[in-house]
User: Which sequence fits this backbone?
């Protein structure tokens, strides 16, 4: 495969950025759900 | 307050918007939709990228470097589409004071900036072996860089006020003004002589791309769009819950302060 380092770098950046946003969103959601459940039991979704 | 003022009910369209903007309903509906959105997004993206990386043909001029297209082009589409979504939410927030619109706009901003960052960096990585330069001040590249700065400006502006409502309103105005950049990005390759190639896929004409490359690109674009939507929905869900937590804590603090004053009295 020609230009392999460029291809790997491009795909790597895309994977790292997307995974970062996904993990952050899911962790934030989980944290908010737990806090809401602790404060207000009706907040369980 | 004028007690004789006649109450005018919101228009049916406004009522519908508020019905869908109910935070409780949003949490219920999004909780059901989110796993499907994520699963479809991840599956289509993996199919598209796997197909593009291992089975699609190399370009006769660019060689395998063309495989960067399966990341770069969907990211570019999402950068513009995300900004359009941000502007629509901002308009809804300004006009109808929709309870979820400003929250959604605030959550689209960082994700859109991420898509623009991927677009710019993958474009730069693709440009080095093809153009011989990491960056050129070309009309397309520069207008996308301006889009990135608009996203960053929006992110900073909505957090720059003590009152979240004022921040959301200032951010909404910036988002609407920035929409002018979208047609500039789209038509930059036609209005100016640029190094960047013109559009290969248009709404009106047939694509000028080999079908064996077009399909993985479409799969990848669709998958990344679902993924983008899933991340925005997940962040908005978190935002709705965080807003509720703040409200509950504030109400509790006010209650405790009131009780303390009663004891002192």
Assistant:
């Amino acid at each position: 495969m020609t230009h392999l380092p460029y291809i790997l770098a491009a795909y790597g950046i895309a994977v790292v950025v997307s995974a970062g946003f996904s993990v952050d969103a899911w962790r934030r959601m989980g944290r908010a759900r737990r806090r809401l459940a602790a404060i207000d039991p009706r907040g369980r979704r | 307050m004028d007690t004789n003022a006649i109450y005018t009910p919101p228009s049916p369209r406004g009522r519908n918007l508020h019905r869908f903007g109910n935070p409780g309903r949003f949490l219920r509906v999004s909780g059901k939709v989110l796993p499907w959105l994520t699963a479809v997004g991840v599956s289509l993206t993996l199919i598209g990228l796997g197909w593009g990386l291992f089975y699609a043909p190399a370009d006769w001029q660019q060689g395998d470097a063309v495989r960067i297209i399966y990341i770069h082009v969907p990211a570019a589409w999402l950068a513009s589409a995300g900004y359009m979504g941000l502007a629509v939410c901002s308009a809804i927030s300004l006009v109808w004071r929709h309870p979820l619109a400003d929250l959604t706009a605030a959550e689209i901003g960082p994700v859109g900036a991420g898509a623009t960052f991927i677009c710019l960096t993958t474009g730069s990585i693709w440009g080095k072996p093809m153009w011989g330069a990491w960056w050129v001040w070309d009309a397309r590249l520069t207008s996308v860089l301006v889009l990135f700065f608009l996203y960053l400006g929006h992110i900073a502006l909505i957090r720059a006020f003590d009152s979240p409502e004022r921040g959301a309103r200032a951010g909404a105005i910036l988002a609407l003004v920035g929409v002018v950049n979208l047609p500039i990005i789209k038509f930059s390759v036609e209005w100016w002589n640029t190094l960047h190639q013109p559009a290969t896929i248009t709404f009106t004409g047939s694509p000028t791309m080999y079908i064996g490359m077009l399909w993985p690109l479409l799969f990848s674009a669709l998958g990344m769009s679902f993924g983008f939507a899933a991340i925005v929905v997940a962040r908005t869900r978190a935002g709705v819950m965080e807003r509720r937590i703040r409200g509950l804590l504030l109400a509790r603090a006010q209650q405790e302060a009131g009780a303390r004053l009663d004891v002192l009295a």
